[in-house]
Amino acid sequence: MGLTIAAIRTGFDAVGTLPEGAFHTTLDEQLICPKCDASYNLIVDYQASVGRHFGEESRKLIMLLKKAIFMGHSDGHRVVHFETSGVVVRSFGVEVEKKRIVKGSDLIQ
What we know:
3 helices; 25% helix; single chain; globular; five-stranded antiparallel sheet
């Protein structure tokens, strides 16, 4: 089974399922958008995080997550949960509340 890392935006709960594992741990390193102050916590299976080759195995996955966060800046960081275990980065977003204008008097309020 390969390594799976999830990046969850600070202040939000996980939207999708977390990586498989009995216990999850948050890594000390946070990923921060270079254009703004949005930060993401990295979640990984505890057993995988204490492995001997974790630094080498996770480097490529963390780079993919960094790129996904950078590309998510143009959407206003609506995606709050990224997850990758290889080539593909899956993203889970939250519904943005859109206010509907029914009549002209709604604009005044």
